[in-house]
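Q&A log
Question type: sequence-to-structure
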Amino acid sequence: MNCFSPLKFFVTECRLLMVGLWVLFPIMGQAQNEYERCLQKAGFENVAAYASHDTLTATLENTNYRGNYRGIGQAIKALSACDAQIKVFRLLVQEYQKPQVVVQATRTSELWSVQVDYDTQQLEQQFITHRSATAARNEEMRTSTTGKIDVVLHPIFSFDNHKLDKLAEVCFFLAPSIETTLWRGNRIYLQPIIPLAHNLTKSNPDRRVQLGVLAVRQEWLNQKRWYLSTTLGSFLYNRYGVNAELAYHYNHQLDFGVRLGLTGEQLLLPNKWQTTAPNKFHGMANVNFYHPATSLQAKLSAGSFVYGDIGVRADLVRHFGEFTVGVYGIYTDGEKNAGFNFALPLSTRRQLRRGQVRIRFPQYFTWEYSMLNYYRYAFEHMGQDYKERPDKSFTTHYWQAAYLQQYITRFLNGVIR
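Response status: OK
Response body:
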């Protein structure tokens, strides 16, 4: 007669459980790797991903797609196509290996809903815990941006119709920017400015090759409320020194910030490299606001401009998806000026960037016109600023949460491409 043995039953169940886990774990690992392979195939770098029930969590850096909102939207679409059972997507989005925002997209039967937040620490800690328990870290390192070199072919166009001896002074330059990231939050730039066509006078130093940006930038802090970065080196518009930017995220639409710099002038003359001591202090406090209903960005800056004049600058920029058109006004030391600026897409929506050295065009072409460029305002270099990044504008590196939330939602729901 067969009798029931608890010990035998327990041993049999343990064996079945071990076999089940032995079979299940490779399947889970394959599923996790499949999400990462989907992101890699779509062109993203610094990727890692894992799923739990109907929620997928991923981290990535967009290096291929034009515009932050399009890159994030394409990542969500790629992951959604990879697994139709996933309903909630949580993305930790990086720039130069440093988390910038957290995006949560929820898929319903008809529409997507999106939330964007600056609080990246909690999700980043979850990835650290996950990588310590799995092999996901090895997958991530194979798609790292560390040490990869980007050669970005920036065009620079200058038009000055304030001359008394000619109708206009026109210049076209090629400014290739050689860039790389060597560690987390770092970016290194080397950018010569090469004149290609112009009608400059022989005494104008811009007839010769000049140094644009030769700098090391480091992002130190990017948390729920605070942001801090510094840049050391040579900047656009013949300045060199050190620059620091501190920002406080009051909410998803409003930021308060401070921009500080200590710089000197540099010029490449026919027979020498001319520099002045870096003793010009530049300090501007600013308020930056984005209004989703009108897609308007308003920025007010007040303080000391590059050459020491004290004043204010007000910018009003309208975002049309990737196109931006803006106007500005400056009042400094009793002088007034105004003008307009714009940013237009220059590259295709996606540029393939493979290999160790990647040559590409910049995502956008930006230009600014100044109404007043003569008399005291021009002679004393009033209202001047510099660029510590070759591609700095109102469009690139724009991580405003309200802006991203608005345009990612529109992208996923098919309103824009």
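Response note: Residues 6-41 form the longest helix (36 residues).
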